[in-house]
Design brief:
6 strands, 6-stranded antiparallel sheet, 4 helices, Beta-Lactamase
C-alpha cells in the first residue's frame, strides 16, 4: 500500500524535524510551509500536503506541497469543510465515494484532514492526499494530529 514499513518511525522523525525547523521562528507562513514540506517528503505516499487557514468564515489555501489546489472552501463542503465544522480528523479511503468531495486534483484517491485547534478554536485544517486508495490509517491520524498540534501553537 504505502511502501513504508514503519509509519510510526517515519512520523516520529517527521515530527522531530518539524519541531526543529519551527523552533524560534515566529513567521506563520514560513512555519506552515516548512511543516508541509517535511510531511510531503517524509511520507512518500503523500501526493499533496498543506494547510487551509480559517479566514473570515471560510477555509483559504495556505502553504502546501503538491499540485495547485482549490483556493477557498466553505465550512461543511468537502472533506476539509466537514473537518472544519466537526473539528475532528477525517480519513477517507476513496474520495470518489465521499458525498460532496471537492475534486481539486483528479488523481487524488484518498485523503486525511486534521483540524488545527488552539484552545478549542479552529485555526486551520491540515489536508493530506494520496493518489492511492486506502492510504491512511490510525497511525497517520496520530502522526498528523501531532504535527497539527505543533502548527496550532504557532498561531
Amino acid at each position: 500500500m504505502t511502501g513504508i514499513l514503519n509509519k510510526k518511525e517515519a512520523y516520529r522523525k517527521a515530527v522531530s524535524e518539524i519541531r526543529a525547523v519551527t523552533d524560534g521562528e515566529k513567521d506563520l507562513t514560513a512555519n506552515l510551509a516548512n511543516i508541509s514540506a517535511v510531511l510531503k517528503w517524509a511520507l512518500p505516499y503523500y501526493s499533496w500536503a498543506g494547510f487551509y487557514i480559517l479566514k473570515d468564515g471560510e477555509l483559504v489555501l495556505g502553504p502546501f506541497q503538491g499540485k495547485p489546489a482549490c483556493i477557498r472552501i466553505k465550512p461543511g463542503r468537502g472533506v476539509c469543510g466537514r473537518c472544519a465544522t466537526e473539528k475532528e480528523s477525517i480519513i477517507v479511503d476513496d474520495v470518489r465515494e465521499f458525498p460532496g468531495h471537492i475534486a481539486c486534483d483528479p488523481d487524488s484517491r484518498s485523503e486525511i484532514v486534521v483540524p488545527v485547534l488552539r484552545s478549542g478554536e479552529l485555526k486551520a485544517v491540515l489536508d493530506v492526499d494520496s493518489a492511492a486508495a486506502c492510504s491512511f490509517d490510525e497511525e497517520d491520524r496520530r502522526g498528523l494530529e501531532e504535527a497539527a498540534a505543533i502548527a496550532a501553537s504557532l498561531f
